[in-house]
Amino acid sequence: MPSYLEVGMVTIIRVFHKYSGLKGKLKKAELKDLINNEMNHFIMVKQHNKNETLDELFADLDQNGDLEIDFKEFITLIAMVTSHAVHRNLQTKLPLQDKQKIAYFIP
Ligand SMILES: [Ca+2]
């Protein structure tokens, strides 16, 4: 029987492929949909300057500059958000208050 961690790892892979499709890379709109649909309890997306902050995040994640997010680059986002959650001791406090969510999108 897989462990909770292994199930979580498989879930990350499945969610990535759900949004990236067969090409295995996320375009900016796909990353935006993934964040909005799958990470909205951990990341607060402010309506104000939403596109500007998404552009900033995308540029930070796109380490090889090919204008797409591959799995290795995506896992950086997962690590960043998960690390933030550990520091906030969030595992027992879902859903979060806005002020507890990762502040990356806040200008
Ligand atoms: Ca890239």
TrEMBL record:
- Gene Ontology CC terms, in alphabetical order: cytoplasm; extracellular space; nucleus
UniProt domain EF-hand: residue ranges: 49-84
- Could you tell me which InterPro entries the record lists for this protein? EF-hand-dom_pair, EF_hand_dom, S-100_dom, S100/CaBP7/8-like_CS, S100_Ca-bd_sub
Organism's domain of life?
Eukaryota
Decide whether keyword Calcium is in the record. yes
Q: Which Pfam families match?
A: S_100
Q: Which UniProt keywords apply?
A: Calcium, Metal-binding, Repeat
Share an example GO biological-process annotation for this protein. positive regulation of cell population proliferation
Q: Name one GO molecular function term.
A: transition metal ion binding
Presence of keyword Membrane: no
Q: Which PANTHER family does this UniProt record tie to the protein? A: PROTEIN S100-B, S100 CALCIUM-BINDING PROTEIN
Q: What is this protein called?
A: EF-hand domain-containing protein
